[in-house]
Write a structure and sequence with these properties.
Layout: E1 2-13, E2 24-40, E3 43-47, E4 52-56, H1 58-78, H2 82-88, H3 94-107, E5 112-119, H4 129-144, H5 151-166, H6 172-179, E6 182-186, E7 193-196, E8 208-214, H7 220-228, H8 232-255, H9 258-274, H10 280-291, E9 295-298, E10 305-310, H11 314-323, E11 328-330, E12 339-342
Parallel strand pairs: 3-5
Antiparallel strand pairs: 1-2, 1-12, 2-5, 2-6, 3-4, 6-7, 8-10, 8-11, 9-10
Helix pairs in contact: 1-2, 1-3, 3-4, 3-5, 4-5, 4-6, 5-6, 8-9
Length: 343
């Protein structure tokens, strides 16, 4: 038996813009996905959070994964991933099923695996629950069969799986979940820029609080497509601005300039709202935090999910959040990436 865990992530700055080649700063958070893997003739996937278990033959899993990969190609050519997203959403275990299929094919193993999945990471909240799951499954299955994959190889396979869930993702989510810490990420051809910021920013980021507003009605892939369908000039102006804010944030973090960091968080939220991915609930929370001298922005794709809040006075921030009826989630930022818990 092998047990592996992977953290979730939040964007300090850069979501949505990162899809168009702008830089982002992403942090691994202290909420993790855990997978226990055992050898089996079949593929058995059990989710403790969903209270659901399904069993498949290895051929069924590989065939389904190949079908979804072919459908991705078709949707990519049509520039519309609606059909793919619809298929994936039919069963909440489909994402894990694809992760197993991709990994077994990559490590050239014909046998199956029994997976038990447990996660502390809120689903559909903009904190990388899907990316953490893919990285954890890839690492757990490959370790179970003693196929030693490097961080780069695990990340590469996880990105292929993420594409089936999100269409044309940046790769930032899976990279941060895999490597951990704070990550400077930029999507580039032929190879993405992924730089650990542990040397530049060796300290932990404090006085940040996560707030879960509501479960988004749209998936990450659907929200990315919504932004893609905006008028090009309107979209690109805001995307470029978010990229500039990411560059400034790096310098601000190095210099520990908390007042400017707060302003960057608020400016980022303004641009994300103009891209159409905020919600009335998020806007209300952001407004309350700003009114009390803090900074707040949505995380991930938006449309609900988690809001990242900051204030030098942590107690004041928590009171503001609780007064609106939310439960603040205090968590470390910049934690370890994927790791083996038991083997």
């Amino acid at each position: 038996m092998v047990k592996v865990s992977t953290p979730g992530k939040i964007y300090l700055v850069g979501e949505h813009a990162v899809v168009y080649g702008e830089p982002a700063i992403i942090a691994a958070i202290g909420k993790r996905c855990y997978v226990e893997a055992r050898k089996n003739e079949k593929v058995i996937i059990t989710s403790q959070e969903l209270n659901k278990s399904s069993s498949f033959t290895v051929d069924e899993v590989v065939s389904f994964t190949n079908d979804m990969t072919d459908l991705w190609d078709k949707c990519y050519n049509q520039k519309d991933f609606s059909e793919l997203f619809s298929e994936i959403k039919k069963d909440p275990l489909n994402y894990a099923k694809i992760a197993v299929g991709k990994t077994l094919s990559r490590i050239e193993v014909k046998s199956g695996v029994s997976l038990s999945i447990k996660s502390d990471i809120p689903v559909g909240a903009g904190v990388g629950s899907g990316a953490a799951l893919t990285v954890t499954v890839v690492k757990a299955v490959s370790e179970l069969y003693r196929k030693k994959l490097s961080y780069e190889e695990v990340n590469e396979i996880a990105f292929e799986i993420e594409k089936l869930g999100h269409g044309t993702p940046s790769g930032g989510d899976n990279s941060t979940c895999c490597y951990g810490g704070l990550v400077w990420f930029q999507k580039k051809d032929p190879k993405n820029t992924i730089i650990s910021l542990k040397k530049d920013i060796p300290y932990k980021l404090e006085n940040f609080v996560l707030v879960y507003t509501k479960r988004p009605e749209k998936t990450t892939g659907e929200l990315v497509q919504l932004v893609r369908e905006l008028e090009e000039y309107y979209r690109n102006k805001r995307v470029k601005k978010i990229g500039m804010l990411a560059c400034e944030m790096l310098a601000v973090l190095k210099n520990r300039n908390s007042s400017r960091m707060k302003e960057i968080i608020n400016e980022t939220q303004k641009n994300l709202a103009e891209l159409g991915v905020s919600t009335p609930e998020i806007d209300e929370l952001v407004s309350a935090v700003k009114k009390n001298g803090g900074g707040a922005k949505l995380c991930g794709a938006g449309g609900g999910g988690v809001v990242l809040c900051y204030h030098e006075d942590n107690k004041k921030l928590i009171k503001t959040i609780k007064d609106l009826g939310y439960n603040p989630i205090e968590t470390e930022l910049g934690v370890d990436g994927v790791r083996i818990e038991l083997s």
